[in-house]
Here is the input.
Amino acid sequence: MTMPPKRKERAAKTGGARPAVEALKKAGCRGCPALCCHDMVEPISRPQTSHDVEELKWQLQYDTIRVFIRSHRWHVIVQGRCMYLTDDNLCSIYDRRPERCRQHNPPDCERYGEFWDVMINTPEELDAYLQKEKRRRSRRRKKRRQARQS
Ligand code: SF4
Ligand code: SF4
Here is the structure.
């Protein structure tokens, strides 16, 4: 899969590689252009029905929307910029920032490389992922059947 422009842009910002954990802990948020304040991430349910899949595909048509899966949990990312972020990329409401912002910390964040297991950028990538998942499930079922019969 070629790297889509949105991901290329992020890889350029993060340098692509995931630096050593100790170095990450020391760096913290210092020098980061507040990447996490530019994306809104919201948990979503895994699409179950064909209607759900069509809805999600429709959302993925927009270049500000992506979906990622991490530890089997699905999330939607909406690109944007928080209204409380200053021109210097600082939080203007730091002392009363929302709980979600308080819980988001390095090194488990956007700055330090891939934080997802699967990233889905387009409706076509969603179809491809779901097809792959279907094939995987069918192989697993077949193996279980064979194990029961032997
Ligand atoms: S949590 Fe991560 S992405 Fe957000 S400002 Fe800190 S280092 Fe940057
Ligand atoms: S409230 Fe502050 S920490 Fe939270 S996203 Fe906005 S600028 Fe970032």
Remarks:
- The chain has a mean pLDDT of 86.
- Residues 37, 82, 84-85, 91, 93, 97-98, 101 surround iron/sulfur cluster (ligand 2) (CB under 6 Å).
- Strands lie at 39-44, 65-70, 73-79, 118-120.
- The chain has one domain: 5-123.
